[in-house]
Amino acid sequence: MNSHTTTSKFIHWTFSLLYAYGIFKQVDELEQLEDASLLNSEIVFAVAFLVIVSIRYFYMKGTPTLLGAHDEMRKGHLFIAKTVHRLVYFSLIMLPTTGLLIAALISFDIPGMRIAIALHELSASLSYIVIAIHIGASLYSRLKGEGIWNAMVPIWQEKGRVNSDLLSRLESLEDKTYDKIEDIFSPK
Ligand code: HEM
Ligand code: HEM
Whole-angstrom Cα distance, residue 19 to residue 90? Predict the structure, then answer.
């Protein structure tokens, strides 16, 4: 059975903690950054976050998506999973980058702060949405017993498919969605 490497799991879970920390300790308002030591520690955090997320991206680049699946995954399924993973990375890069933009505007007294803050908040909102979809999809896959959960999550391991009518109905909806996606990208 395929599993993600120990390093991949380690990066996934320590990075999730770093993200949670970043969200919880967030700056509430611009005025707080008049405190130079807070501004400096935000900059250090943002740079570290950016470096770690880049290392992770390049480390994971060669790893197949939905690696743990027992059965061959449909192209439409892989397309959606890859798209969500890319959007997660995009939001995780935009968050510290727009944070650093705010810091630069403060330090060099350049105008445009409202736009920078709007972009920062947009990046935060995007990260909430795509990570919620990501966790929802992982839970859904766990119900289906596909093996994907077990390959990345060390706890509460799945033991096969949960039988339910609702799940079967969701699966047929899922199949139709994949048909549509596959038609768009490789029409017969
Ligand atoms: C309860 C929380 C979470 C669960 C259950 C979960 C579950 C999973 C699973 C099962 C995979 C493997 C998918 C595959 O094999 O293709 C995965 C990969 C991934 N997860 Fe999560 N995840 C969680 C939280 C997070 C968070 C908070 C982030 C971002 C900060 C994140 C970002 C990613 C990314 C980018 C991947 C793709 C592989 C990689 O580049 O590391 N996940 N996750
Ligand atoms: C990885 C680094 C960072 C993360 C994860 C992060 C995260 C967040 C989040 C989640 C919010 C709340 C957004 C919302 O209202 O939806 C926020 C707000 C804010 N952040 Fe960051 N941030 C980071 C770096 C920075 C940096 C480097 C600065 C500037 C030095 C900064 C300045 C601000 C400011 C001024 C606000 C408040 C915006 C307002 O007035 O509503 N952030 N940040």
Answer: 14
Q: Whose CA is nearest to atom 28 of ligand 2?
A: 99
CA-proximal residue: ligand 1, atom 43 (nearest)? 152
pTM of the model: 0.95
Closest protein CA for atom 38 of ligand 2: 29
Query: Could you read off the pLDDT tens digit of each residue along the chain, which spans 188 residues?
Result: 799 999 999 999 999 999 999 999 999 999 999 999 999 999 999 999 999 999 999 999 999 999 999 999 999 999 999 999 999 999 999 999 999 999 999 999 999 999 999 999 999 999 999 999 999 999 999 999 999 999 999 999 999 999 999 999 999 999 999 999 999 998 76
User: For residue 92, how far is its CA from the centre of ligand 1 (angstroms)?
Assistant: 13
